[in-house]
Amino acid sequence: MSIIVTPLDGPLGAQISGVDLSQPLGDDDFAIIQKALTDHLIFVISGLDADLDALAGFCRRFGPLVPHVLEQYHHPETSDVSIISTNPETGAGRSTDMPAGAFWHSDLSYDANPSDATMLYGVEIPPEGGDTLFSNMVLAYDSLPHSTQNRIEGLNAVHRYGYRGGSAVVDLNDTQGTRHPDVIHPMVRPHPLSGKKALFVNPGFTVAIEGLSEEESRDLLNELFEHATEPDLIYRHAWKPGQLVASDNRTTIHCATAGYEGHARTLWRFIVGGTG
Ligand code: SIN
How far apart are the CA of 256 and the centre of ligand 1, in A? Predict the structure, then answer.
């Protein structure tokens, strides 16, 4: 295979061409793809007319896949894949007012072991709307005033499933909730492969900063959330069927958008578990 990585014209992301999942992917080719994710934080592969097994096999190269807490949306063939779908004709899929994930978040930051990466595959794409936004949390950290960088270094934040996702959140049932108590993570995390520091808080799941008063915590988090979602940090992905978009959840946050009312939209989601 001749893998070509072309940076996107924006604050993060690369387009990768030359990937054929019907052929074995050699270690050297995989290393190029993995480096693209580390360097560019997200990558897009277009025109992948691949089946579930081939896609899952590719995603597993990045690490073990973890089943999402909402097991009611697992793919019938494997809990390693979740179906994110809305179909106004059949009523199938999510029934939330806003699309699933329509709030800024990093997948599984509410888990004791936050995920390394998410791969989304476009199965059924509406004629308009339904873009996914991605923000660069390395740039978010780098562009903070030094005083704020110093203030958050060494601080931890509390994360909770669905905390600020409003009507885009499917509530956990009692069993799911019991399995997901609040967790604490450092607010600044160096990426294990690149060593780059990333801001690790997100509007959807981050509740509070440990050791600060309620007011101080709220004000600082709001300041960080506003900064991390400024337009110059964001890549907006307009989907085509057969595209795979991978995001490094240690260095990005993402947000689904609406705007496709009356049309069906289906993505498959693969989550690579956390290694650090
Ligand atoms: C997600 O948050 O994982 C879903 C993103 C999307 O549907 O665009």
Answer: 5
The structure tokens listed for 94 are 């999510």
Q: In angstroms, what is the span from residue 270 Cα to ligand 1's centroid?
A: 11
pLDDT tens per residue, range 153-182: 999 999 999 888 888 888 888 888 898 999
Instruction: Tell me how crowded residue 146 is: count the other CB atoms within 10 A of its CB.
Output: 7
What domains appear along the chain, each with residue ranges and CATH number? Answer: 4-272 (3.60.130.10)
> CA of 220: how far to CAs of 110, 151, 157, 214, 224, in Å?
19, 10, 11, 10, 6
User: What's the CA-to-centroid distance between 120 and ligand 1, angstroms?
Assistant: 8
Distance of CA 252 to the CA centre of its chain: 7
pLDDT single digits (tens) 62-101 = 999 999 988 889 999 999 999 999 877 776 776 677 888 9
* Number of the ligand 1 atom closest to the C-alpha atom of 84: 7
Q: What are phi and psi of 73, to 5 degrees?
A: -105, 10
Contact 201, 221 (CB under 8 A): yes
98-123 pLDDT, tens digit per residue, is: 888 999 999 999 999 999 999 999 99
